[in-house]
Amino acid sequence: MILILGFGIVRIGVANESGRFIPAKAVAFAQQQHIAGPVFNDYAFGDYLIYRGIAPFVDGRADMYGDTFIKRYRQIEKLPSLLTQYGITWTLLDPDDPRVTLLDYLPGWRRAYADEIAVVHVRGEDAAVAPSNRGG
Q1: Of all residues in the chain, what percent carry a pLDDT higher than 70?
Q2: Does residue 59 contact residue 46 with C-beta atoms inside 8 Å?
Q3: Rounded to whole angstroms, how far apart are CA atoms 84 and 93?
Q4: At a CB cut-off of 8 Å and minimum separation 6, what does 69 contact?
């Protein structure tokens, strides 16, 4: 019981009120590296981005976006066209999202940061990449 309680205390700084983990370290990295522009984000990270003053691609207000938009957002094969259409310059996705693997191999995109909660990819061949943050 003490071990479980101790784990909860350690994780308190990175979990939101629902218990969902937030990408605090990944967003801090993006800000430290001056990564800017439109972001394509994990649906669950949208509200945190708003909190940090970053306009999300999508957030918890799914009804506002409409079914067609959300369906397209979720389809992995639509990712390249969405990135181009919306001028996306960086992404913030859950490491288990299959779009992370696609981005790892998509020309013009580079993994810049990864931890157990989020992965950041940036557009451009000259994107700053910290080798110690190239998790997978």
Answers
A1: 76
A2: yes
A3: 17
A4: 58
Q: For residue 63, how many C-alpha atoms fall within 13 Å in the half-sphere facing its CB?
A: 0
Distance CA 33, CA 28 (A): 9
Q: Hey, how many other C-beta atoms are within 10 angstroms of the C-beta on 136?
A: 9
Burial 12-49 (b: 16+ CB within 10 A, else e): eeeeeeeeebbbbbbbebbeebebeebbbbbbbbbbbb
Residue 30 near residue 89 (C-beta atoms within 8 A): no
Q: How many residues does this entry show for the chain?
A: 136
Q: Is 114 exposed, middle or buried (0-12, 13-18, 19+ CB in 10 A)?
A: buried
| Residue ranges of domains in the chain | 21-133
Contact between 50 and 39 under an 8 Å Cβ cutoff? The reply is: no
CB 97 within 8 A of CB 42: yes
The pTM score is 0.78
What does the pLDDT look like over 52-109, one tens digit per residue?
A: 999 999 998 877 888 999 999 999 999 999 999 999 999 999 999 999 999 999 999 9
